[in-house]
Amino acid sequence: MKRLLLLLLLAVLAPHLAAAQHAFAGGGAYDPEVPTPRAVLGYEVGERFTPHHLLMRYAEALAASSRRIRLDTVAHSFEGREVLLAILTSETNHARLEQIRADAGRLARPQGAGAGELNAIVGRIPTIVWLGYTVHGGEASGTEAAIAMLYQLAAGRDPETQMILDSAVVLIDPVQNPDGHERHVQDVMRMRSALGVPVSPAAMIHQGNWPGPRTSHYYFDLNRDWFIHSHPETRGRIATFLQWAPHVAVDLHEMGSNSTYFFAPPMEPVHEHVHSSIPRWWDIFAAANAAAFDRQGWSYFRREGYDEFYPGYGVSWPIMTGAVGMTYEQASSGGGAIRRNDGTVLTLHQAALQHYTAAWATALTAASRRQERVRDYLAFRQSAITEAARAPMRAVVIEPDAQGRADSLAARLIGNGIVVQRLSRASDLSATEYGGAQARSVRLPAGAYVVDLAQPQGRLARTLLEPEARLDSSFIAQELESRRTGQPGRFYDVTAWSLPYSYRVRAWWTRATPGPLEPVSFDTPSRAEPAAARYGYAFEAGSEAGLGLLAGLLADSVRVWYAQRGFHIGEHRFPHGAFLVRVEANDESVHERVRRHAGASGAQVAVLSSAMVDEGADLGSNSVVPLRTPRVALLGGSPINGNSFGFAWFAFDQRLRYPVTPVSVSSLGGAALDDFEVLVVPSTPAAALERELGDAGRERITQWVRAGGTLITLDGATAWLASERLGLARLRLHPDTTAAEAQQGAPLPANVPGAIVRVAADTLSLLLAGVNQAELPVLVFSERIYAAPRDLRPGEAAIRYAEQPRLRLAGYLWPEVPARLAGTPYLWTERVGRGRVIGFAGDPNFRDLWRGLLPLFANAVFFAGSY
Fold first, then answer.
1. Distance (Å, rounded) from C-alpha 858 to C-alpha 658?
2. Global confidence as pTM
3. Of 192, 244, 712, 781, whose CB neighbour count within 10 A is largest?
4. Which of 601, 626, 651 represents a domain boundary (last residue)?
């Protein structure tokens, strides 16, 4: 029915279409049966920002009228918007599209194919070009440029267009972040004047509302999510990318309004696993882009501002799969037109036109050098196998664990297209443990996951799994000199992300591939529902499944206890912090509710017939303590960091499935806290939060904590917790932190690169319940360093940074940092009146990458007020 209505609409519009001129055409002929953007949207490309429903309407109109385009929905965002992929190629190629995709898959997985078969595919397959627009919602000229590209490829009759269609399959993702993009469009539409867009940079239309449109529904940066896969947009995009195996991938962004245009090559650092063929192609595409821009007299730059080190970008991830990945950055027009420092006014039309021009030059170059690009892609995939087979690090082994973290990591690797296998029986070999220095003889258990790096996706696997990503020594020397002389640094993102550390699993790397191996299957085994218990149900803390079960039970008003000491009952051993549901203390529906939430979470539940244990305190002991069901508030609004807010919100909503109420900073001076037992404060500059709260807000929080509330601070907010002015904690910023730095609560210096370090845990602390490790890895992304008081009380410093010889695990730390950081608190807790404060020096929820730290955050919330 929808297609019929679109065809009827086109029939009505047909007399007007032939005369319509597309904004970016520059002449040329168009198919009169294909509607221009104006015919459907009601305006020319670049006159205004296009909301998502109109983008979808136009794409569907093109698909209904042109045989060159097919639409796929690769995902739906958290707000329910379609993530669209438009597939554009010639009618002839569309007729053999499944064969093209099969050929692409064969080149991506060339093992076992003969040279003749592969050469035949190289000779016939079109090059596959991926164009991704507007991953940051406010960088919206990309979506307008995508609309122009869709029309040109669907309707253009000129020789260039036909050559691209014949020699390439162009995959267009017109809005990678539909939720953030829609926030931007609606903000601009609400502020748009009948007289046009005010061009002053100070105009509200250019500012947006907290936290801005850059991020997703949960305020994540989706341009950091390509290997993490926290969002459905990313998961669908990656699955589709793996199906098509593109040879070229472009991610089109915006930057500050006073810049010009950036295209690859990138600046240093470039990850060492970027294949030597990729920089040559960067230069080829740069020459084509430069020629197109030079014809128009437009300015541009290369090799500044944007690196290719962190593998979670929308081009660095494709690069590790063999595509020529390139970031393009266009100066932003803000709300649609903005005056720049040189007095010129940059419009949305001009911004979209420049993005369109660069993308067109890229597609044209890829098509004209089709066979050369495809052959280099094949060589990349083949060399990933042969080079890994000769490398000292041949395989990574991940030991299974009872809490399911190894399973989650293996599933994430498989989602990245990486082949993961499993040891079918125990294997003895020489291996080096992550965090260790020397290889030793070990017995790796049956069921351990094995990633043989000699596979076509091996460069990506190595990049994600190796213990450390190496930075070139000359780059480090230059950064140290820049820091000494006060020049801008080039660290753009974290310098460490090794997944065995972030998932907190025990892992080894080996020079040989252990065996025997069997395929991995994640088919959920049928699990018997827990029988009705006579006394109660027990389950362990620490796993995501167990925490999910706890959250579900508490939210469902089930009374839950926890054991302050470990106990052993029958075949079950439970460490301290284990949870207990007593049948006698709940109503008769408790059995059904335990079964339902256990099934939903996947947690293992022990059915108990007696309160008597074999070891430890009996379950009726006073050492088994009731948990309060905490009502949780999450502080948001300016000046709270939107990313940190989003990470915590996501942890509650998607990982724990526990209700949380966002409250604004401005509301805290009144009665807002009366409804809550726990307040989580995400990262924020300490001085800015102090100003926003004012005396009334600060005093209200202090009274609330002393009366029994629990205050949890994350990252920068812990500098506020440690301030004498707040007066709640004995924790203080380290004396090495200057007064100005303490006042701002800012990192030292501002561009500190993220590194992975070892911390030492007080395993008796309830905040460590279920963690079961005396040492664990954390991310340090700041030089805010804290000092414990001299009269330290037991349990206050629940986690400290390790001493200097064992501190750094991966990533770069400035030379003076290890000595300053060693032994200082990472996780602090203390009683204040009837309440409690808990401060994290970092953010345990960072990007949903640090899944191994989720229990620390969950324990802070769920044990709040109960100990």
1. 10
2. 0.94
3. 712
4. 626
